[in-house]
Amino acid sequence: MARFNIVLLAPEIPGNTGSVGRTCVALDLKLHLIRPYGFDISEKALRRAGLDYWKYVELAEYDSFDEFLKKTTPEAAKMFFFSKAANQLYFDAKLEDGCFLIFGSETKGLPDYLFDKYKDRFYKLPIFSDKVRSLNLSNVVTAVAYEALRQQLFKTV
What is the total count of domains within the chain? Predict the structure, then answer.
């Protein structure tokens, strides 16, 4: 089983999803995609960004967040949501083995109902410039995934 899981809720840009898939293959992570997508999963742009690695992605697909919850049954303590609207920095998240790192769509982010239900589970990457509205989804996923890996490989006793 993968050390932890990457979850994309309603991804819109095939290149980002392809790049996230490539990161998942590199780190031996499972990728969970939750519909609706802003593209066809067989789209050339997705395969181009994932290069020839896409065939190695351990992939699960769901029609809704509720279906994702029903099929994966994650504990709330193992779910970590990432949004620019969060108050906590991702450095403060205790990313454990088997956790789910959950990201929203590129233009809409995560829905308000998730923020209302899991507010204490939301984290953000810092942005210091007022000239940048948000960071690229695939870059954020990669940064968070490597932080989770760092925390798991270099645990302090």
Answer: 1
